[in-house]
Design a protein that fits this description.
- 4 copies of one chain form a homotetramer.
- Chain A is an alpha/beta fold and 372 residues long.
- Chain A has a single domain, classed as Aldolase class I (TIM Barrel).
- Chain A has helices at residues 60-68, 80-83, 88-96, 99-109, 116-128, 139-152, 178-184, 197-205, 220-227, 233-250, 267-275, 285-288, 323-328, 340-350, 356-359; strands spanning 2-6, 9-13, 20-22, 27-29, 38-40, 43-45, 49-51, 72-76, 134-137, 156-160, 167-169, 189-194, 210-213, 257-261, 280-283, 298-299, 315-316, 364-366.
- In chain A, the strands form 5 sheets. An 8-stranded parallel beta barrel of chain A has the order 7-8-9-10-12-13-14-15, surrounded by 5 helices. A two-stranded antiparallel ribbon of chain A has the order 1-2.
- In chain A, helix 1 runs parallel beside helix 5, helix 5 (116-128) packs across helix 6 and helix 11 packs across helix 14.
- Chains in contact: A-B, A-D, B-C, C-D.
Chain lengths: 372, 372, 372, 372
Amino acid sequence: MEIEIGRAKRGRRVYAFDDVAIVPSRRTRDPEDVSVSWSIDAFQFDIPFMAAPMDSVVSPATAIQMGELGGLGVLDLEGLWTRYEDPEPLLAEIRELAPDAATARMQQIYAEPIKPELVTSRLAEIRAGGVTVAGALSPQRTQELYQTVVDAGVDLFVIRGNTVSAEHVSKEREPLNLKKFIYELDVPVIVGGAAGYTPALHLMRTGAAGVLVGFGGGAAATTRAALGIHAPMATSVADVAGARRDYLDESGGRYVHVIADGGLGTSGDIVKAIAMGADAVMLGASLARASDAPGGGWHWGQEAHHGQLPRGKRVRVGTIAPLEQILYGPATVADGTANLVGALRRSMATTGYSDLKEFQRVDVVVAPYVSQ
Amino acid sequence: MEIEIGRAKRGRRVYAFDDVAIVPSRRTRDPEDVSVSWSIDAFQFDIPFMAAPMDSVVSPATAIQMGELGGLGVLDLEGLWTRYEDPEPLLAEIRELAPDAATARMQQIYAEPIKPELVTSRLAEIRAGGVTVAGALSPQRTQELYQTVVDAGVDLFVIRGNTVSAEHVSKEREPLNLKKFIYELDVPVIVGGAAGYTPALHLMRTGAAGVLVGFGGGAAATTRAALGIHAPMATSVADVAGARRDYLDESGGRYVHVIADGGLGTSGDIVKAIAMGADAVMLGASLARASDAPGGGWHWGQEAHHGQLPRGKRVRVGTIAPLEQILYGPATVADGTANLVGALRRSMATTGYSDLKEFQRVDVVVAPYVSQ
Amino acid sequence: MEIEIGRAKRGRRVYAFDDVAIVPSRRTRDPEDVSVSWSIDAFQFDIPFMAAPMDSVVSPATAIQMGELGGLGVLDLEGLWTRYEDPEPLLAEIRELAPDAATARMQQIYAEPIKPELVTSRLAEIRAGGVTVAGALSPQRTQELYQTVVDAGVDLFVIRGNTVSAEHVSKEREPLNLKKFIYELDVPVIVGGAAGYTPALHLMRTGAAGVLVGFGGGAAATTRAALGIHAPMATSVADVAGARRDYLDESGGRYVHVIADGGLGTSGDIVKAIAMGADAVMLGASLARASDAPGGGWHWGQEAHHGQLPRGKRVRVGTIAPLEQILYGPATVADGTANLVGALRRSMATTGYSDLKEFQRVDVVVAPYVSQ
Amino acid sequence: MEIEIGRAKRGRRVYAFDDVAIVPSRRTRDPEDVSVSWSIDAFQFDIPFMAAPMDSVVSPATAIQMGELGGLGVLDLEGLWTRYEDPEPLLAEIRELAPDAATARMQQIYAEPIKPELVTSRLAEIRAGGVTVAGALSPQRTQELYQTVVDAGVDLFVIRGNTVSAEHVSKEREPLNLKKFIYELDVPVIVGGAAGYTPALHLMRTGAAGVLVGFGGGAAATTRAALGIHAPMATSVADVAGARRDYLDESGGRYVHVIADGGLGTSGDIVKAIAMGADAVMLGASLARASDAPGGGWHWGQEAHHGQLPRGKRVRVGTIAPLEQILYGPATVADGTANLVGALRRSMATTGYSDLKEFQRVDVVVAPYVSQ
């Protein structure tokens, strides 16, 4: 179903979460009877939520808290916690920066080198909390730091960049050979973002346990303005779920998890991500709104302090409730920002599904927001 | 006509009232020659309007007034009138609540238990007014309270929830068996909401006299944000009208009434609901705007005080005219909020139709608001 | 190309002027070489513009001025000029009315009876100005007043209502038999509005010289809210142009003029109306903005003072330039409100066409405004 | 894929840059390995950017600076620099004009006659700067001034108007015969705007080295309101790229460059223009935002001071950084207005392409902004 844009160019019509909705069907169910548990490799979680490796979302303490609440917190191993012995004053400073000075000062703060010994100690701190340990590196830093990470001990290793391909070409340096790297590593790897069928299929063939789906995350609008690149999430997740199905067949049964990463601002978006075929979701802004999140009401990604081409910015998200209440309610507002788990359960119950895998089959409709 | 959203997901394009319009055809007619009468079971009404069972819309007094004006008022049997001997001070308090305190205080007010004796006396009061008596329960409370309701005497029994399915599954408790319940009850039942062909067809097969079409009513936007569920009304009504036609054939002639419930903010929306195949409409906000409505310029549904996951809120709708004038005019404004009956008549006359059943065949077009 | 809205309803996708645009083609031309002349029956006009029969647009003096400028002014024979000996004080009063009092006071002012002797004298005044004389009646008043109008002498007789059908059905009174009426009348008749192929074809079969295309004119948004009726102009004009073509064949050569009436706020809209197949346009708001228009910066139609169901309102359009400059420039603004004739010429020149009939064949594209 | 707008009219659905986006594919690459060089005829450029011949964008000094930075500055030979010995005071005056006086005063300023000797000296000044020399004339002035231009010495001759067709028809004067003109001229000619396949193909057949694609440039919005003409850029560029391909075949190998001209407000738009098939882009507003641009924070085109029908206006674009930084970064903002070259490189790298010609094949999707 390609559209002719002009004589020399055709393109597919793609869809954002806002373009789609799920619809009730014949059966309904009690919310209490619904399971939202998720397991990947040997690890079990009560809820299919990963906290994104961003300094405004996950500190070692949040990672432990997230684990205790049934999910998984992923620490950014290239963030403030591995650059500074005590990052709290810097987190506080970032919150207070004047808008016009923010980008420049953040570029400075993040220019501080990463200390391998801090990588080790931060991961040890999380492990001591008794929860599943996960840390994230960018593809550019993976070769330099992965041995430190593995030696420190992680349960799940996350490689996360704007776009990660299985086939990076470089004239200057030997790029990371993901297939070889993952094969040799004795830890399950979750890798992405990938935003389409083909790049995701290639990532699955590297042996990854999970693929992060998305491009540019919460900075989608500025990425589109700056780079002209845009991969609306409903189509991206459904495409990568298609790659999972085809790879399952091709590999004779290896099930690679599809994790939606970006554009998940409300519980409704989370519901739609799973309806499109996601096994789990990685949450940024939704959790940065927790009153006990490290960002203290502010949220930023690595694009915000890119040296040459910043493509996002520090944004004020405010604080609405403690993390536990954002996840499990009760909600005191009706806008989909709190009781994320309760909303997911109710949505599954209303449409008659009892677990996440079944819920991926729920009926959906195309109904752009603009026409309500 | 399914759309591929992504490799692993397809969905239908669905339409809201704002996406469609009716168009004139060959013939025109005098508005005075048009009939807008409606009958269901043994009951006759001058106008096809039910007042929604919401505390801001229907009190026992309004139910009588609505009946006298030719329509049907449905009392919420789980609202303030069956929880409190004198709800007037609470209605007044709700109007005055500060925005940030409203949800919490309303949760408190509605925590007061329902008194069966009040159910009995409220329904008796309406019957004494000499009009058709209708009361509504949620599916959750139906088993507990229906005997009280039937003993008190109702002409029409309404079971109304966000989504009511003919097949509710529960591990904890025996769910309401709608088919058995309706079969044994000696009163016609109107049940819903249902938002699609299949769930509505199953409700029709339970023996219901009418099906309410809609999901989330006036809280559609917040329901979509919180649950990811959205069922735009133009498609929903036309789908359920399709179920009515198919069930008419399957049942050898049983005509189940299709009643649009939600998203009917203007007389234009009412016109479109009938054009899509509705036999009647259930009005909430449109009637809450009456200066003599119990809400006194405010409007709220049961979602507004849900304990764990509120999905709507008390909204200020203002007051524009007495109920009689909202229904029959004259209108002093031109925005479709007054003279609802006059507008329906004029619309039918302009397109040449003389009764509601014929008018369901009127030509419609797809013309999204955005492109005027 | 019908769309399934839901199981029991299908509808066509229709288009507004804002949804379409014209595009340049192979050839260009000098604007000076372009002719924008129009003739209907025995009457020749330099420009294809009729001024709408509305009190804010056409007085007897404006009708003369419009004729001298090459177009045709149509006097509303049911407006202030035929109800009052001296309407100027009332025009001034309407301009000054407070917003919340306007509808009610206008209902009062227009309750004054029409005086046949004023119909006679106003038309005589225009004829004395040496221009083509045109007056408009509503279908409801045509039988009562047409003899007065014909005796007074008009060159073109306009019957204009929201929707005029060739087959009006009434139980109370004998409706106007348009076919018989037009056959017996010795004056060419322009009749409408009609908004679709079938109603327009039926109007053409009555013997009308021209058909007005539109529904609800500038009050389209409120008409849609109140009545649920909407006929976007691009589709309406192209449909009626299709009826003209088919009727030309069916009648063995009778060419009925298609006159777009409504939604023509800018010179771009006028260009598009002709591109869709219109022979001429009837202008309301565009001309009400003239500093010498009778409305003095305000604009209103007959819907604004409808007794029971007002569907438009008095709107402030402001004044931008004298009528001559609005038509012929120079424009001092770049928004399509001035130099309407110059813009039409330039548009035709840019796409290589030299007269209006040819220009109806210009290439058009569908390009909704929302995506610029 | 034509759409029926109404019975008598059909049109193609066309697309703007905002309607489309590019998407990552299987491979990624280092931004440093990407080439963005462009060559036309014998001229080589480091970057595929032409600065538009507008007084707010290119002065002789800017033309030199643009050349030194790797691009091509085109001087407007009908602008202030060829009308006035010293235009600096007039540039300053235009910046300071009150909004309501601007159009009238600019009409006055640009009424000053063009001096051939200034054409000669301005071009000599640019040549003395050691860069490629390019000047632009409108089609109306080309016959009068081209000999002066050629004698003064230009490397690239630009003929630029709103719409330039290969077949202009005029009753009054002999129009420019482009084919003959270009054949006889010993300098490569870039000509446009053309906005569709057929007009561009005809321009290619005149022997032009490049075709400018666009209609109305940044003033497109008012052009649509005033003239009803609109040619969204994504479709226009892809159509003209189709003409290039067909003409390449038809001519046995003559490659005519496609240069997108208009609607390029962000680096994302530039990326999309090339993705649609452009070989280079002509930038106006993007470069007018340079702190060292002649407009000093204001931007205007020739439509802004058109005598009879102004179709654009002087707009405040502000200043964000010196020209060098707008082109090469670092960006301190994340909205696509700075580091245009860096963004183009990163976009190509992210999608795995290494030169501009290859990048024209990148995958694109249709994803209207409204649904993010």
